[in-house]
Design goal:
Layout: H1 2-24, H2 28-40, H3 44-58, H4 64-77, H5 81-94, H6 101-114, H7 124-139, H8 146-173, H9 177-190, H10 197-213, H11 217-237, H12 244-262
Length: about 260
């Protein structure tokens, strides 16, 4: 084990010395050739350093576009998505008529997707992904990447939906039933085509019922009426739902409660 660690350290040191020697060389053509070799070998950190170093020498040459293209991907492959997004954006500004423009436009949007976090966290990059992928679809209607763009949009919508559902469920778990009812109703309004739409409506009904059940006596009848109204709306909107019997249960309970309150 110790021998392996020593050999690994030696290889890293030798590799660092190698790139440092190349960087110290004053021949930009040699540096560019070495950058290409590192790029092909997927040593993107070293390739990027060399491309960055030779850019000033090639800014007015035909090689500049290809160098900039590979600089962008060098950062992307290192998972530096913030910088790679900026490179893809700048590439489009520098070379708007390039045959690679469509690819760069897609990759810029894709960088935001790669920065989209798990549902519990801030979803700014998720929303940016949706907007930019939709813009890509509108700008490049014949692109073979449209299928992927649409799939990514769907994934992002699912993530936003999951975040909203978790927030609504948290209200319910904390016993904030009115807030939960409103939150689940909002989820349904935002994602009416969701395959879980009937579940959101049911959770809103269940939350309204718990809210009515825990209310002061003079407010209960009014709030159980709200549950009945929501149950009737469920029956109209989701007549084939597997949750229909559960909704009917809350409907009957609410009607019984109103009758008992009237005694």
């Amino acid at each position: 084990m110790r021998l392996v660690l020593i050999l690994s350290a030696f290889c890293i040191l030798a590799s660092c010395n190698g790139i440092n020697k190349v960087l110290k060389n004053k021949d930009p053509e040699y540096k560019l050739r070495m950058a290409e070799k590192y790029y092909v070998k997927k040593k993107y950190n070293y390739a990027y350093q060399l491309y960055e170093d030779v850019v000033p020498y090639y800014k007015t040459s035909k090689e500049f576009e290809d160098i900039y293209y590979k600089m962008a991907y060098s950062t992307f492959y290192q998972k530096d998505y913030t910088n790679s997004e900026n490179f893809f954006k700048t590439y489009l500004e520098l070379f708007p008529n390039s045959p690679r423009a469509e690819e760069m436009d897609y990759m810029r949007a894709y960088c935001f997707y790669r920065q989209s976090p798990k549902p519990e966290l801030d979803q700014t990059n998720t929303m940016k992904t949706i907007g930019m992928m939709q813009s890509f679809i509108n700008t490049h209607p014949g692109s073979p990447r449209i299928k992927d763009a649409n799939e990514i949009i769907d994934i992002c919508h699912d993530k936003l939906e999951t975040k909203d559902v978790k927030a609504a469920q948290l209200y319910y778990d904390l016993g904030q039933f009115r807030a939960a009812a409103v939150a689940f109703a909002e989820v349904l309004n935002n994602y009416p085509e969701s395959n879980r739409a009937d579940e959101y409506k049911f959770m809103s009904i269940k939350s309204y019922y718990r809210y009515a059940e825990l209310s002061v006596e003079d407010k209960k009848a009014e709030r159980f009426e709200k549950v009945i109204s929501e149950c009737n709306d469920f029956a109209d909107r989701f007549p084939e739902s597997k949750l229909s019997k559960d909704v009917e249960h809350y409907l009957n309970l609410s009607q019984t409660n109103i009758k008992n309150l009237a005694i």
